Amino acid sequence: MNFIASRRRLRGRLDNTIRTLCPLIEGEVLKRAWVKRSEYELRRELVGCILGSQVRHEMAVAATENLEYTNLLTDTRWYRRRDISFESDVLMVLEGR
Predict the structure, then answer these.
(1) How far is the C-alpha of 35 from the C-alpha of 40, rounded, in Å?
(2) pLDDT (tens digit, 9 = 90+) per residue, 17-33?
(3) Distance between CA atoms of 71 and 62, rounded to whole angstroms?
(4) Helix/strand/coil (H, E, C) string of the chain?
């Protein structure tokens, strides 16, 4: 078999693979329903990402869970005016106190 025939065969196989994969990928994308997230869920995710950029994943997850457990991610704590203890409360949780 010459070079040109070999390339044509390879191209045909690639085209068939692409034709097979595209509908499968499209089906997977369509299955994923985009869920609306609450501001609280987005805040928790953001805090987890910020922590995860600085420490190991396990530590970031644990710290985020602790912040959540102590209600430091709630709307009440985030939007309360003149909450002078908020920063120190967050620091205490992150330090493990």
Answers:
(1) 14
(2) 888 888 888 887 777 76
(3) 14
(4) CCHHHHHHHHHHHHHHHHHHHHHHHHHHHHHCCCCCCCHHHHHHHHHHHHHHCCCCHHHHHHHHHHHHHCCCCCHHHHHCCCCCCHHHHHHHHHHCC
Name, in order, each residue with C-beta under 8 angstroms of 39's C-beta and a sequence gap of 6 or more: 75
Low-confidence ranges of the chain (pLDDT < 70): 1, 33-35
Asked whether the beta carbons of 86 and 77 are under 8 A apart, the reply is: yes
Report the share of the chain in percent with pLDDT over 90.
Answer: 36
* CA separation, residue 74 to residues 35, 40, 45, 65, 83 (Å): 20, 7, 13, 12, 13
Q: Exposure of 64 by Cβ count < 10 A (0-12 exposed, 13-18 middle, 19+ buried)?
A: buried
